[in-house]
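Re: your question from the hallway

Yes, I did run it. Sequences:
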Amino acid sequence: GENVEQHPSTLSVQEGDSAVIKCTYSDSASNYFPWYKQELGKGPQLIIDIRSNVGEKKDQRIAVTLNKTAKHFSLHITETQPEDSAVYFCAASEAGGSYIPTFGRGTSLIVHP
Amino acid sequence: DGGITQSPKYLFRKEGQNVTLSCEQNLNHDAMYWYRQDPGQGLRLIYYSQIVNDFQKGDIAEGYSVSREKKESFPLTVTSAQKNPTAFYLCASGLLGVVPTTNYGYTFGSGTRLTVV
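Structure:
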């Protein structure tokens, strides 16, 4: 089955800095890679996703890159703000069909004002 | 306003009791899922259902049971056989199919925190 590794487990940055979270996956059949943000006491919320036919996708201060050859994908947050503080999860799956994603263990991002 | 609703937000269970967590969605999603979240362990799949009256075990199904009598509802029962039930439980729903432009991402509920007392 699929195995997703996520690093780092904790990331501390100053407001305005960039933050990068990296994930690797093992199953070459995976073609859909979502990222979720979970604020304290709440459920995760999808913030951005990428499909395997695309190398990069941006949405304002958030971007995701995908390297299918190396089987890794990354979340980039620029100009971080205190409200970006949360736990971020990556996931990998084969879109369509049964679609059961495998999640990484999460990264706790702390943005210091 | 479409969404997925979990209740209650907090639940306390005595030793030997069964408790049921509610999950309802009005997104017309085919599939529904239950996850357990423990600190440092990410999200672990308990059960999932892709069609009414059918469900499949996930990675940690022992001590749990589910039903899917309606498309909108997927309740989870934590039985007395679950020896360590204290955790944060998340319900999610999503679309199935192969439409390339579809957002395949999950919609999660806000969670139920279960504590054994």
